[in-house]
Protein backbone atom coordinates (compact mmCIF):
# COMPACT_ATOMS: atom_id res chain seq x y z
CA UNK A 1 0.00 0.00 0.00
CA UNK A 2 2.87 2.33 0.89
CA UNK A 3 4.68 1.67 -2.38
CA UNK A 4 1.47 2.13 -4.37
CA UNK A 5 0.95 5.44 -2.58
CA UNK A 6 4.43 6.47 -3.70
CA UNK A 7 3.97 5.29 -7.30
CA UNK A 8 2.90 8.58 -8.83
CA UNK A 9 2.34 7.23 -12.34
CA UNK A 10 -0.22 4.73 -11.08
CA UNK A 11 -2.06 7.67 -9.48
CA UNK A 12 -2.79 9.01 -12.95
CA UNK A 13 -4.77 5.87 -13.78
CA UNK A 14 -6.42 5.90 -10.35
CA UNK A 15 -7.59 9.50 -10.87
CA UNK A 16 -8.89 8.73 -14.38
CA UNK A 17 -10.76 5.70 -13.02
CA UNK A 18 -12.32 7.46 -10.05
CA UNK A 19 -13.11 10.56 -12.15
CA UNK A 20 -14.81 8.61 -14.92
CA UNK A 21 -16.90 6.47 -12.54
CA UNK A 22 -18.13 9.69 -10.91
CA UNK A 23 -18.62 11.41 -14.29
CA UNK A 24 -20.62 8.45 -15.62
CA UNK A 25 -23.55 9.31 -13.33
CA UNK A 26 -23.57 12.92 -14.52
CA UNK A 27 -23.28 11.89 -18.21
CA UNK A 28 -26.13 9.41 -17.69
CA UNK A 29 -28.30 12.07 -16.07
CA UNK A 30 -27.66 14.73 -18.77
CA UNK A 31 -28.36 12.19 -21.53
CA UNK A 32 -31.52 10.95 -19.83
CA UNK A 33 -32.80 14.53 -19.48
CA UNK A 34 -32.11 15.22 -23.16
CA UNK A 35 -33.80 12.02 -24.30
CA UNK A 36 -36.82 12.83 -22.15
CA UNK A 37 -36.83 16.30 -23.76
CA UNK A 38 -36.68 14.69 -27.22
CA UNK A 39 -39.59 12.41 -26.32
CA UNK A 40 -41.67 15.32 -24.98
CA UNK A 41 -41.00 17.30 -28.16
CA UNK A 42 -42.01 14.30 -30.32
CA UNK A 43 -45.24 13.93 -28.36
CA UNK A 44 -45.95 17.70 -28.49
CA UNK A 45 -45.53 17.60 -32.29
CA UNK A 46 -47.99 14.72 -32.46
CA UNK A 47 -45.47 12.39 -34.08
CA UNK A 48 -46.00 9.41 -31.77
CA UNK A 49 -48.41 7.92 -29.32
CA UNK A 50 -45.92 5.32 -28.09
CA UNK A 51 -45.16 5.38 -24.35
CA UNK A 52 -41.93 6.99 -23.11
CA UNK A 53 -39.34 4.17 -23.25
CA UNK A 54 -37.66 5.73 -20.22
CA UNK A 55 -40.75 5.95 -18.03
CA UNK A 56 -40.09 4.14 -14.79
CA UNK A 57 -36.34 3.56 -15.16
CA UNK A 58 -34.65 3.05 -11.80
CA UNK A 59 -32.25 5.67 -10.41
CA UNK A 60 -29.50 3.06 -10.87
CA UNK A 61 -29.83 3.63 -14.63
CA UNK A 62 -27.44 6.57 -14.18
CA UNK A 63 -24.76 4.13 -13.04
CA UNK A 64 -24.92 1.83 -16.08
CA UNK A 65 -21.96 3.46 -17.84
CA UNK A 66 -19.79 2.77 -14.83
CA UNK A 67 -19.88 -0.88 -15.92
CA UNK A 68 -17.86 -0.16 -19.04
CA UNK A 69 -15.41 2.13 -17.23
CA UNK A 70 -14.64 -0.67 -14.78
CA UNK A 71 -13.95 -2.98 -17.75
CA UNK A 72 -11.86 -0.44 -19.68
CA UNK A 73 -10.09 1.82 -17.21
CA UNK A 74 -10.33 -0.25 -14.03
CA UNK A 75 -8.91 -3.40 -15.62
CA UNK A 76 -5.93 -1.60 -17.15
CA UNK A 77 -5.31 0.24 -13.88
CA UNK A 78 -5.38 -3.06 -11.96
CA UNK A 79 -2.94 -4.62 -14.45
CA UNK A 80 -0.49 -1.71 -14.07
CA UNK A 81 -0.72 -1.88 -10.26
CA UNK A 82 -0.19 -5.65 -10.30
CA UNK A 83 2.80 -5.49 -12.66
CA UNK A 84 4.42 -2.68 -10.68
CA UNK A 85 3.93 -4.50 -7.37
CA UNK A 86 5.97 -7.55 -8.35
CA UNK A 87 8.31 -5.97 -10.88
CA UNK A 88 9.45 -3.30 -8.46
CA UNK A 89 10.69 -5.98 -6.05
CA UNK A 90 12.61 -7.75 -8.79
CA UNK A 91 14.16 -4.52 -10.11
CA UNK A 92 15.24 -3.31 -6.67
CA UNK A 93 16.11 -6.86 -5.49
CA UNK A 94 14.06 -6.28 -2.32
CA UNK A 95 12.64 -9.81 -2.63
CA UNK A 96 16.05 -11.15 -1.51
CA UNK A 97 15.87 -9.02 1.61
CA UNK A 98 12.24 -9.84 2.37
CA UNK A 99 12.74 -13.58 1.87
CA UNK A 100 15.78 -13.57 4.14
CA UNK A 101 13.33 -12.86 6.97
CA UNK A 102 11.07 -15.59 8.40
CA UNK A 103 8.46 -15.03 5.68
CA UNK A 104 7.27 -17.69 3.23
CA UNK A 105 6.97 -16.90 -0.46
CA UNK A 106 3.21 -17.61 -0.37
CA UNK A 107 2.76 -15.19 2.55
CA UNK A 108 4.80 -12.56 0.73
CA UNK A 109 2.71 -12.85 -2.47
CA UNK A 110 -0.62 -12.99 -0.65
CA UNK A 111 0.48 -10.01 1.45
CA UNK A 112 1.17 -8.05 -1.72
CA UNK A 113 -2.20 -9.12 -3.08
CA UNK A 114 -3.92 -8.02 0.14
CA UNK A 115 -2.27 -4.59 -0.19
CA UNK A 116 -3.42 -4.28 -3.79
CA UNK A 117 -6.88 -5.49 -2.80
CA UNK A 118 -7.14 -2.69 -0.23
CA UNK A 119 -6.00 -0.08 -2.78
CA UNK A 120 -8.55 -1.33 -5.32
CA UNK A 121 -11.29 -1.49 -2.68
CA UNK A 122 -10.51 2.08 -1.61
CA UNK A 123 -10.63 3.35 -5.22
CA UNK A 124 -13.91 1.55 -5.90
CA UNK A 125 -15.32 2.61 -2.52
CA UNK A 126 -14.55 6.32 -3.07
CA UNK A 127 -15.87 6.42 -6.64
CA UNK A 128 -19.06 4.49 -5.90
CA UNK A 129 -19.76 6.47 -2.72
CA UNK A 130 -19.52 9.77 -4.66
CA UNK A 131 -21.72 8.25 -7.41
CA UNK A 132 -24.26 7.26 -4.72
CA UNK A 133 -24.31 10.86 -3.47
CA UNK A 134 -24.70 12.28 -7.01
CA UNK A 135 -27.53 9.88 -7.89
CA UNK A 136 -29.25 10.73 -4.58
CA UNK A 137 -28.98 14.45 -5.41
CA UNK A 138 -30.36 13.85 -8.94
CA UNK A 139 -33.09 11.67 -7.48
CA UNK A 140 -34.01 14.33 -4.88
CA UNK A 141 -33.74 11.80 -2.02
CA UNK A 142 -31.16 9.33 -0.71
CA UNK A 143 -31.21 5.98 -2.49
CA UNK A 144 -33.23 3.37 -0.59
CA UNK A 145 -31.74 0.35 1.14
CA UNK A 146 -32.49 -1.96 -1.77
CA UNK A 147 -30.81 0.29 -4.36
CA UNK A 148 -27.89 0.95 -2.00
CA UNK A 149 -27.48 -2.79 -1.61
CA UNK A 150 -27.35 -3.13 -5.40
CA UNK A 151 -24.67 -0.43 -5.64
CA UNK A 152 -22.65 -2.30 -2.99
CA UNK A 153 -23.15 -5.57 -4.89
CA UNK A 154 -21.93 -3.93 -8.10
CA UNK A 155 -18.92 -2.50 -6.23
CA UNK A 156 -18.05 -5.95 -4.82
CA UNK A 157 -18.28 -7.52 -8.26
CA UNK A 158 -16.06 -4.74 -9.68
CA UNK A 159 -13.52 -5.54 -6.97
CA UNK A 160 -13.55 -9.22 -7.96
CA UNK A 161 -12.90 -8.37 -11.63
CA UNK A 162 -10.19 -5.80 -10.89
CA UNK A 163 -8.42 -8.07 -8.40
CA UNK A 164 -8.34 -10.81 -11.05
CA UNK A 165 -6.65 -8.43 -13.50
CA UNK A 166 -4.27 -7.24 -10.74
CA UNK A 167 -3.31 -10.91 -10.22
CA UNK A 168 -2.71 -11.25 -13.96
CA UNK A 169 -0.41 -8.22 -13.74
CA UNK A 170 1.39 -9.71 -10.72
CA UNK A 171 1.88 -12.96 -12.60
CA UNK A 172 3.47 -11.35 -15.67
CA UNK A 173 5.49 -9.07 -13.39
CA UNK A 174 6.90 -12.23 -11.76
CA UNK A 175 7.41 -14.22 -14.95
CA UNK A 176 8.60 -11.71 -17.56
CA UNK A 177 12.22 -11.02 -18.32
CA UNK A 178 11.58 -7.44 -19.46
CA UNK A 179 9.42 -4.62 -18.10
CA UNK A 180 7.83 -3.96 -21.51
CA UNK A 181 6.81 -7.61 -21.84
CA UNK A 182 5.45 -7.63 -18.28
CA UNK A 183 3.11 -4.74 -19.13
CA UNK A 184 2.28 -5.77 -22.64
CA UNK A 185 1.37 -9.44 -22.20
CA UNK A 186 -1.54 -8.75 -19.78
CA UNK A 187 -2.74 -5.95 -22.09
CA UNK A 188 -2.84 -8.43 -24.99
CA UNK A 189 -4.68 -10.98 -22.80
CA UNK A 190 -7.13 -8.25 -21.74
CA UNK A 191 -7.69 -7.32 -25.41
CA UNK A 192 -8.37 -10.95 -26.29
CA UNK A 193 -10.78 -11.40 -23.37
CA UNK A 194 -12.59 -8.07 -23.86
CA UNK A 195 -12.79 -7.99 -27.68
CA UNK A 196 -11.75 -11.15 -29.55
CA UNK A 197 -13.49 -13.86 -27.49
CA UNK A 198 -16.88 -12.10 -27.37
CA UNK A 199 -16.67 -11.38 -31.10
CA UNK A 200 -16.04 -15.04 -31.98
CA UNK A 201 -19.10 -16.13 -30.03
CA UNK A 202 -21.55 -13.34 -30.81
CA UNK A 203 -20.39 -11.63 -34.03
CA UNK A 204 -20.34 -8.36 -32.06
CA UNK A 205 -17.99 -5.76 -33.51
CA UNK A 206 -15.09 -4.60 -31.30
CA UNK A 207 -16.44 -1.05 -30.90
CA UNK A 208 -19.94 -2.29 -30.02
CA UNK A 209 -18.30 -4.17 -27.14
CA UNK A 210 -17.68 -0.76 -25.55
CA UNK A 211 -21.38 -0.80 -24.78
CA UNK A 212 -22.21 -1.43 -21.09
CA UNK A 213 -24.82 -4.00 -22.11
CA UNK A 214 -23.39 -7.46 -22.96
CA UNK A 215 -23.37 -8.53 -26.61
CA UNK A 216 -26.24 -10.79 -27.65
CA UNK A 217 -25.28 -14.00 -29.43
CA UNK A 218 -26.26 -14.25 -33.10
CA UNK A 219 -28.68 -17.12 -33.43
CA UNK A 220 -27.50 -19.81 -35.78
CA UNK A 221 -25.62 -23.12 -35.86
CA UNK A 222 -22.05 -21.79 -35.76
CA UNK A 223 -22.65 -19.09 -33.16
CA UNK A 224 -24.80 -21.32 -30.94
CA UNK A 225 -21.95 -23.83 -30.65
CA UNK A 226 -19.03 -21.39 -30.39
CA UNK A 227 -20.73 -19.11 -27.85
CA UNK A 228 -21.16 -22.13 -25.56
CA UNK A 229 -17.36 -22.35 -25.42
CA UNK A 230 -16.36 -18.66 -25.56
CA UNK A 231 -19.26 -17.32 -23.45
CA UNK A 232 -18.09 -18.61 -20.05
CA UNK A 233 -14.46 -17.51 -20.62
CA UNK A 234 -15.45 -14.04 -21.84
CA UNK A 235 -14.97 -12.64 -18.35
CA UNK A 236 -15.69 -9.03 -19.20
CA UNK A 237 -19.00 -10.01 -20.86
CA UNK A 238 -19.88 -12.11 -17.80
CA UNK A 239 -19.13 -9.05 -15.67
CA UNK A 240 -21.38 -6.88 -17.87
CA UNK A 241 -24.17 -9.45 -17.64
CA UNK A 242 -24.01 -9.77 -13.86
CA UNK A 243 -23.63 -6.00 -13.32
CA UNK A 244 -26.54 -5.16 -15.64
CA UNK A 245 -28.79 -7.60 -13.76
CA UNK A 246 -27.65 -6.25 -10.38
CA UNK A 247 -28.30 -2.66 -11.55
CA UNK A 248 -31.73 -3.70 -12.92
CA UNK A 249 -30.94 -2.70 -16.51
CA UNK A 250 -34.08 -3.67 -18.41
CA UNK A 251 -32.04 -4.57 -21.53
CA UNK A 252 -30.62 -7.62 -19.71
CA UNK A 253 -32.65 -10.38 -18.13
CA UNK A 254 -31.76 -13.64 -16.43
CA UNK A 255 -29.88 -14.79 -13.37
CA UNK A 256 -26.58 -13.22 -12.34
CA UNK A 257 -25.51 -16.25 -10.26
CA UNK A 258 -23.77 -18.12 -13.11
CA UNK A 259 -21.75 -15.05 -14.17
CA UNK A 260 -20.79 -14.26 -10.56
CA UNK A 261 -19.71 -17.86 -10.04
CA UNK A 262 -17.45 -17.71 -13.09
CA UNK A 263 -15.87 -14.42 -11.99
CA UNK A 264 -15.22 -15.68 -8.45
CA UNK A 265 -13.92 -19.00 -9.82
CA UNK A 266 -11.40 -17.28 -12.11
CA UNK A 267 -10.28 -15.08 -9.20
CA UNK A 268 -9.66 -18.18 -7.05
CA UNK A 269 -7.73 -19.93 -9.84
CA UNK A 270 -5.57 -16.84 -10.44
CA UNK A 271 -4.82 -16.59 -6.70
CA UNK A 272 -3.61 -20.20 -6.64
CA UNK A 273 -1.45 -19.70 -9.75
CA UNK A 274 0.20 -16.55 -8.36
CA UNK A 275 0.67 -18.04 -4.88
CA UNK A 276 2.36 -21.09 -6.43
CA UNK A 277 5.18 -18.97 -7.88
CA UNK A 278 8.51 -20.50 -6.75
CA UNK A 279 11.01 -18.49 -4.68
CA UNK A 280 13.61 -18.70 -7.45
CA UNK A 281 11.24 -16.95 -9.87
CA UNK A 282 10.46 -14.20 -7.35
CA UNK A 283 14.18 -13.55 -6.88
CA UNK A 284 15.12 -13.63 -10.56
CA UNK A 285 16.39 -10.39 -12.06
CA UNK A 286 15.33 -8.69 -15.24
CA UNK A 287 17.08 -9.19 -18.55
CA UNK A 288 17.63 -5.49 -19.28
CA UNK B 1 19.99 12.48 -44.17
CA UNK B 2 22.43 9.57 -44.33
CA UNK B 3 22.71 9.21 -40.54
CA UNK B 4 18.91 9.40 -40.31
CA UNK B 5 18.63 6.54 -42.78
CA UNK B 6 21.29 4.52 -40.92
CA UNK B 7 19.29 4.84 -37.69
CA UNK B 8 16.10 3.94 -39.57
CA UNK B 9 17.81 0.80 -40.89
CA UNK B 10 18.94 -0.07 -37.37
CA UNK B 11 15.31 0.18 -36.19
CA UNK B 12 14.23 -2.14 -38.99
CA UNK B 13 16.91 -4.65 -38.06
CA UNK B 14 16.03 -4.46 -34.34
CA UNK B 15 12.33 -5.01 -35.01
CA UNK B 16 13.04 -7.89 -37.38
CA UNK B 17 14.83 -9.63 -34.50
CA UNK B 18 12.22 -8.68 -31.87
CA UNK B 19 9.99 -11.64 -30.96
CA UNK B 20 7.57 -9.40 -29.05
CA UNK B 21 6.96 -7.37 -32.22
CA UNK B 22 6.29 -10.56 -34.17
CA UNK B 23 3.82 -11.73 -31.51
CA UNK B 24 1.97 -8.39 -31.55
CA UNK B 25 1.64 -8.27 -35.30
CA UNK B 26 0.58 -11.92 -35.44
CA UNK B 27 -2.09 -11.21 -32.80
CA UNK B 28 -3.36 -8.22 -34.79
CA UNK B 29 -3.43 -10.28 -38.01
CA UNK B 30 -5.28 -13.17 -36.35
CA UNK B 31 -7.82 -10.80 -34.75
CA UNK B 32 -8.41 -9.13 -38.12
CA UNK B 33 -8.83 -12.46 -39.91
CA UNK B 34 -11.21 -13.69 -37.20
CA UNK B 35 -13.30 -10.54 -37.66
CA UNK B 36 -13.62 -11.19 -41.42
CA UNK B 37 -14.49 -14.84 -40.77
CA UNK B 38 -17.05 -13.98 -38.10
CA UNK B 39 -18.67 -11.29 -40.30
CA UNK B 40 -18.91 -13.80 -43.17
CA UNK B 41 -20.39 -16.46 -40.85
CA UNK B 42 -22.88 -13.91 -39.53
CA UNK B 43 -23.97 -13.08 -43.09
CA UNK B 44 -24.40 -16.79 -43.91
CA UNK B 45 -26.52 -17.19 -40.77
CA UNK B 46 -28.73 -14.31 -41.98
CA UNK B 47 -28.95 -15.90 -45.40
CA UNK B 48 -29.92 -19.30 -43.94
CA UNK B 49 -32.61 -17.64 -41.83
CA UNK B 50 -33.86 -15.80 -44.93
CA UNK B 51 -34.00 -19.01 -47.02
CA UNK B 52 -35.88 -20.82 -44.24
CA UNK B 53 -38.35 -17.92 -44.03
CA UNK B 54 -38.92 -17.95 -47.81
CA UNK B 55 -39.48 -21.73 -47.71
CA UNK B 56 -42.02 -21.34 -44.91
CA UNK B 57 -43.78 -18.57 -46.83
CA UNK B 58 -43.95 -20.75 -49.95
CA UNK B 59 -45.24 -23.73 -47.91
CA UNK B 60 -48.00 -21.54 -46.49
CA UNK B 61 -49.07 -20.63 -50.04
CA UNK B 62 -47.83 -17.03 -49.95
CA UNK B 63 -46.48 -15.56 -53.16
CA UNK B 64 -44.70 -12.68 -51.41
CA UNK B 65 -40.90 -12.85 -51.66
CA UNK B 66 -39.10 -10.53 -49.20
CA UNK B 67 -35.86 -8.84 -50.23
CA UNK B 68 -32.83 -11.05 -49.67
CA UNK B 69 -29.96 -9.82 -47.48
CA UNK B 70 -27.24 -8.40 -49.71
CA UNK B 71 -23.51 -8.90 -49.14
CA UNK B 72 -21.26 -5.89 -49.66
CA UNK B 73 -17.77 -7.46 -49.47
CA UNK B 74 -15.97 -4.42 -48.05
CA UNK B 75 -18.39 -4.32 -45.11
CA UNK B 76 -16.71 -7.53 -43.93
CA UNK B 77 -13.73 -5.31 -43.06
CA UNK B 78 -15.56 -3.36 -40.40
CA UNK B 79 -14.25 -5.45 -37.49
CA UNK B 80 -10.72 -5.32 -38.90
CA UNK B 81 -10.82 -1.51 -39.09
CA UNK B 82 -12.05 -1.38 -35.51
CA UNK B 83 -9.24 -3.69 -34.37
CA UNK B 84 -6.70 -1.37 -35.99
CA UNK B 85 -8.47 1.56 -34.35
CA UNK B 86 -8.18 0.05 -30.85
CA UNK B 87 -5.45 -2.60 -30.74
CA UNK B 88 -3.38 -1.22 -33.63
CA UNK B 89 -3.08 2.10 -31.78
CA UNK B 90 -2.06 0.30 -28.56
CA UNK B 91 0.60 -1.74 -30.33
CA UNK B 92 1.84 1.37 -32.16
CA UNK B 93 2.36 3.01 -28.77
CA UNK B 94 4.31 0.00 -27.53
CA UNK B 95 6.57 0.05 -30.59
CA UNK B 96 7.14 3.81 -30.27
CA UNK B 97 8.01 3.43 -26.58
CA UNK B 98 10.25 0.44 -27.33
CA UNK B 99 12.43 2.36 -29.79
CA UNK B 100 13.46 4.80 -27.05
CA UNK B 101 13.44 2.41 -24.08
CA UNK B 102 15.63 -0.27 -25.65
CA UNK B 103 18.55 2.14 -26.11
CA UNK B 104 18.54 2.81 -22.38
CA UNK B 105 18.00 -0.80 -21.30
CA UNK B 106 20.71 -2.16 -23.62
CA UNK B 107 23.14 0.60 -22.76
CA UNK B 108 23.44 1.60 -26.43
CA UNK B 109 22.22 5.16 -25.84
CA UNK B 110 25.64 6.53 -24.84
CA UNK B 111 27.24 4.79 -27.81
CA UNK B 112 24.64 6.27 -30.17
CA UNK B 113 25.09 9.76 -28.73
CA UNK B 114 28.89 9.52 -28.99
CA UNK B 115 28.63 9.31 -32.80
CA UNK B 116 28.65 12.45 -35.01
CA UNK B 117 24.91 12.48 -35.68
CA UNK B 118 22.83 15.59 -36.27
CA UNK B 119 20.41 17.19 -33.79
CA UNK B 120 17.33 15.55 -35.35
CA UNK B 121 18.93 12.44 -36.84
CA UNK B 122 18.11 10.06 -33.97
CA UNK B 123 14.39 10.86 -33.57
CA UNK B 124 13.87 11.34 -37.33
CA UNK B 125 15.59 8.01 -37.98
CA UNK B 126 13.41 6.26 -35.41
CA UNK B 127 10.21 7.78 -36.83
CA UNK B 128 11.31 6.92 -40.37
CA UNK B 129 12.12 3.35 -39.31
CA UNK B 130 8.69 2.93 -37.72
CA UNK B 131 7.03 4.48 -40.78
CA UNK B 132 8.67 1.81 -42.95
CA UNK B 133 7.73 -0.94 -40.46
CA UNK B 134 4.09 0.16 -40.32
CA UNK B 135 4.02 0.45 -44.11
CA UNK B 136 5.12 -3.19 -44.40
CA UNK B 137 2.73 -4.36 -41.67
CA UNK B 138 -0.25 -2.52 -43.18
CA UNK B 139 0.62 -3.85 -46.65
CA UNK B 140 0.73 -7.43 -45.30
CA UNK B 141 -2.55 -6.96 -43.38
CA UNK B 142 -4.17 -5.49 -46.50
CA UNK B 143 -3.15 -8.43 -48.66
CA UNK B 144 -4.19 -10.93 -45.97
CA UNK B 145 -7.63 -9.40 -45.42
CA UNK B 146 -8.25 -9.01 -49.15
CA UNK B 147 -7.50 -12.71 -49.64
CA UNK B 148 -9.70 -13.47 -46.59
CA UNK B 149 -12.64 -11.60 -48.20
CA UNK B 150 -12.20 -13.66 -51.36
CA UNK B 151 -11.62 -17.03 -49.68
CA UNK B 152 -13.38 -16.95 -46.28
CA UNK B 153 -16.05 -14.44 -47.25
CA UNK B 154 -16.43 -16.01 -50.70
CA UNK B 155 -17.18 -12.52 -52.02
CA UNK B 156 -16.00 -11.18 -55.40
CA UNK B 157 -14.06 -7.88 -55.53
CA UNK B 158 -14.08 -5.30 -58.35
CA UNK B 159 -11.26 -2.93 -59.32
CA UNK B 160 -12.95 -0.05 -57.48
CA UNK B 161 -13.10 -2.18 -54.32
CA UNK B 162 -9.32 -2.65 -54.46
CA UNK B 163 -8.91 1.13 -54.82
CA UNK B 164 -11.13 1.66 -51.76
CA UNK B 165 -9.11 -0.89 -49.77
CA UNK B 166 -5.86 0.85 -50.74
CA UNK B 167 -7.18 4.26 -49.62
CA UNK B 168 -8.25 2.74 -46.29
CA UNK B 169 -4.79 1.15 -45.97
CA UNK B 170 -3.08 4.54 -46.42
CA UNK B 171 -5.36 6.06 -43.77
CA UNK B 172 -4.54 3.16 -41.41
CA UNK B 173 -0.80 3.59 -42.01
CA UNK B 174 -0.97 7.30 -41.13
CA UNK B 175 -3.09 6.57 -38.03
CA UNK B 176 -0.61 3.99 -36.70
CA UNK B 177 2.32 6.29 -37.42
CA UNK B 178 0.56 9.02 -35.41
CA UNK B 179 0.45 6.82 -32.28
CA UNK B 180 4.03 5.57 -32.63
CA UNK B 181 5.40 9.11 -33.04
CA UNK B 182 3.33 10.33 -30.09
CA UNK B 183 4.70 7.51 -27.91
CA UNK B 184 8.29 8.37 -28.91
CA UNK B 185 7.74 12.01 -27.87
CA UNK B 186 6.04 11.13 -24.56
CA UNK B 187 8.69 8.55 -23.65
CA UNK B 188 11.47 11.01 -24.49
CA UNK B 189 9.88 13.64 -22.25
CA UNK B 190 9.32 11.29 -19.29
CA UNK B 191 11.99 11.12 -16.63
CA UNK B 192 11.26 7.44 -15.96
CA UNK B 193 10.82 5.04 -18.90
CA UNK B 194 7.83 3.14 -17.48
CA UNK B 195 6.14 6.50 -16.83
CA UNK B 196 6.39 7.25 -20.56
CA UNK B 197 4.63 4.00 -21.42
CA UNK B 198 1.90 4.42 -18.84
CA UNK B 199 1.23 8.08 -19.76
CA UNK B 200 1.01 7.09 -23.45
CA UNK B 201 -1.44 4.31 -22.52
CA UNK B 202 -3.56 6.78 -20.53
CA UNK B 203 -3.65 9.07 -23.61
CA UNK B 204 -4.69 6.02 -25.69
CA UNK B 205 -7.35 5.11 -23.14
CA UNK B 206 -8.81 8.63 -23.18
CA UNK B 207 -8.74 9.27 -26.94
CA UNK B 208 -9.39 5.78 -28.30
CA UNK B 209 -11.81 4.33 -25.76
CA UNK B 210 -13.28 6.90 -23.40
CA UNK B 211 -14.08 9.92 -25.60
CA UNK B 212 -15.70 7.92 -28.44
CA UNK B 213 -17.59 5.88 -25.82
CA UNK B 214 -18.96 9.04 -24.18
CA UNK B 215 -19.96 10.38 -27.60
CA UNK B 216 -21.85 7.16 -28.37
CA UNK B 217 -23.44 7.11 -24.92
CA UNK B 218 -24.74 10.66 -25.32
CA UNK B 219 -26.38 9.91 -28.68
CA UNK B 220 -30.16 9.99 -27.97
CA UNK B 221 -30.74 7.36 -30.66
CA UNK B 222 -28.42 4.90 -28.87
CA UNK B 223 -30.46 4.88 -25.67
CA UNK B 224 -32.90 2.19 -26.72
CA UNK B 225 -32.00 -1.15 -28.38
CA UNK B 226 -32.89 -0.75 -32.07
CA UNK B 227 -32.76 3.06 -31.83
CA UNK B 228 -34.99 5.59 -30.04
CA UNK B 229 -36.55 7.02 -33.20
CA UNK B 230 -37.20 3.60 -34.72
CA UNK B 231 -38.90 2.53 -31.47
CA UNK B 232 -41.09 5.65 -31.57
CA UNK B 233 -41.68 5.07 -35.33
CA UNK B 234 -40.39 8.51 -36.31
CA UNK B 235 -39.35 9.08 -39.94
CA UNK B 236 -35.90 10.53 -40.75
CA UNK B 237 -37.09 14.07 -41.78
CA UNK B 238 -39.11 14.37 -38.56
CA UNK B 239 -36.14 13.05 -36.55
CA UNK B 240 -33.90 15.77 -37.96
CA UNK B 241 -36.55 18.43 -37.24
CA UNK B 242 -36.86 17.30 -33.63
CA UNK B 243 -33.10 17.08 -33.12
CA UNK B 244 -32.70 20.65 -34.44
CA UNK B 245 -34.20 21.74 -31.10
CA UNK B 246 -31.31 20.07 -29.28
CA UNK B 247 -28.53 21.53 -31.41
CA UNK B 248 -26.36 22.61 -28.44
CA UNK B 249 -26.41 19.13 -26.89
CA UNK B 250 -25.68 17.52 -30.25
CA UNK B 251 -22.83 19.97 -30.94
CA UNK B 252 -21.23 19.10 -27.58
CA UNK B 253 -21.65 15.39 -28.28
CA UNK B 254 -20.22 15.63 -31.80
CA UNK B 255 -17.48 18.00 -30.58
CA UNK B 256 -16.41 15.36 -28.06
CA UNK B 257 -16.31 12.68 -30.75
CA UNK B 258 -14.29 14.72 -33.26
CA UNK B 259 -11.79 15.72 -30.57
CA UNK B 260 -10.56 12.14 -30.85
CA UNK B 261 -8.21 11.31 -33.72
CA UNK B 262 -9.67 7.81 -33.64
CA UNK B 263 -13.05 9.09 -34.84
CA UNK B 264 -11.36 10.84 -37.77
CA UNK B 265 -9.68 7.57 -38.73
CA UNK B 266 -12.92 5.63 -38.29
CA UNK B 267 -15.10 8.04 -40.27
CA UNK B 268 -12.61 8.23 -43.15
CA UNK B 269 -12.16 4.45 -43.36
CA UNK B 270 -15.87 3.69 -43.01
CA UNK B 271 -16.73 6.24 -45.69
CA UNK B 272 -14.20 5.05 -48.28
CA UNK B 273 -14.96 1.37 -47.65
CA UNK B 274 -18.69 2.04 -47.85
CA UNK B 275 -19.21 0.57 -44.37
CA UNK B 276 -21.33 3.59 -43.50
CA UNK B 277 -24.58 3.10 -45.40
CA UNK B 278 -24.63 6.71 -46.65
CA UNK B 279 -21.44 6.11 -48.65
CA UNK B 280 -22.03 2.49 -49.68
CA UNK B 281 -21.52 2.08 -53.47
CA UNK B 282 -21.05 5.85 -53.87
CA UNK B 283 -18.36 7.24 -56.24
CA UNK B 284 -15.01 8.04 -54.62
CA UNK B 285 -15.31 11.71 -55.68
CA UNK B 286 -18.52 12.10 -53.72
CA UNK B 287 -17.00 10.47 -50.64
CA UNK B 288 -13.93 12.71 -50.88
CA UNK B 289 -16.13 15.82 -51.18
CA UNK B 290 -17.68 14.93 -47.81
CA UNK B 291 -14.57 13.62 -46.11
CA UNK B 292 -11.72 15.90 -47.11
CA UNK B 293 -12.01 17.81 -43.83
CA UNK B 294 -11.26 14.63 -41.87
CA UNK B 295 -8.33 13.86 -44.15
CA UNK B 296 -6.88 17.33 -43.50
CA UNK B 297 -7.21 17.02 -39.71
CA UNK B 298 -5.71 13.52 -39.74
CA UNK B 299 -2.75 14.80 -41.78
CA UNK B 300 -2.34 17.79 -39.45
CA UNK B 301 -2.42 15.50 -36.40
CA UNK B 302 0.31 13.29 -37.86
CA UNK B 303 2.45 16.29 -38.72
CA UNK B 304 2.03 17.57 -35.14
CA UNK B 305 2.82 14.16 -33.69
CA UNK B 306 5.98 13.68 -35.77
CA UNK B 307 7.11 17.25 -34.97
CA UNK B 308 6.51 16.54 -31.28
CA UNK B 309 8.57 13.32 -31.44
CA UNK B 310 11.44 14.89 -33.37
CA UNK B 311 11.42 18.13 -31.38
CA UNK B 312 11.40 16.59 -27.90
CA UNK B 313 13.62 13.55 -28.38
CA UNK B 314 16.68 15.63 -27.63
CA UNK B 315 20.09 14.54 -26.39
CA UNK B 316 19.33 16.17 -23.02
CA UNK B 317 15.95 14.44 -22.59
CA UNK B 318 17.40 11.07 -23.54
CA UNK B 319 20.36 11.33 -21.19
CA UNK B 320 18.40 12.23 -18.07
CA UNK B 321 16.35 9.05 -18.29
CA UNK B 322 16.28 6.50 -15.49
CA UNK B 323 14.90 3.00 -15.97
TrEMBL record, chain B:
Transmembrane spans: 20-43, 83-100, 120-153, 165-189, 196-215, 291-312
UniProt keywords, alphabetically: Membrane, Transmembrane, Transmembrane helix
Name of the featured protein: Polyphenol oxidoreductase
Gene Ontology MF term list: ABC-type transporter activity
Signal peptide (UniProt feature, chain positions): none
Alphabetical list of Pfam families matching this protein: ABC2_membrane_2
Keyword field contains Metal-binding: no
Superkingdom assignment: Bacteria
One Gene Ontology term, aspect cellular component: plasma membrane
Claim: Translocase is one of the keywords in the record: no
Source species of the chain: Cryobacterium adonitolivorans
Amino acid sequence: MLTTRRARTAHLLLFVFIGMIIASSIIGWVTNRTVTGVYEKVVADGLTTAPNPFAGVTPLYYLRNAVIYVVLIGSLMAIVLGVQATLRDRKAATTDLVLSRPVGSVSRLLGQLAGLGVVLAASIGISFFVSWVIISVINGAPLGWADTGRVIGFALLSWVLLTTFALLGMLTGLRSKQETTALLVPFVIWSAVAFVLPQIGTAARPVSLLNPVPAVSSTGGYFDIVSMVTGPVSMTEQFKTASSIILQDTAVTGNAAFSILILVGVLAVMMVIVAATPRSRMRSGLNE
Amino acid sequence: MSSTWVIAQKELLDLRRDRLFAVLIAFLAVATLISVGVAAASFRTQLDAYNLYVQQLAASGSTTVPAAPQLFPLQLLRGGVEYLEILGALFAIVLGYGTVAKEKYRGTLQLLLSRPVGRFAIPAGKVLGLAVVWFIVVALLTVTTTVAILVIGNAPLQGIDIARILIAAVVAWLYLLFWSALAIGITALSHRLSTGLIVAIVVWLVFVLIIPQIGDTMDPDNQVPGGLFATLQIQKPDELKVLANFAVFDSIRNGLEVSSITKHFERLSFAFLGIKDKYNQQPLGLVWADMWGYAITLAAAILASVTFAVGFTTRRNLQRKIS
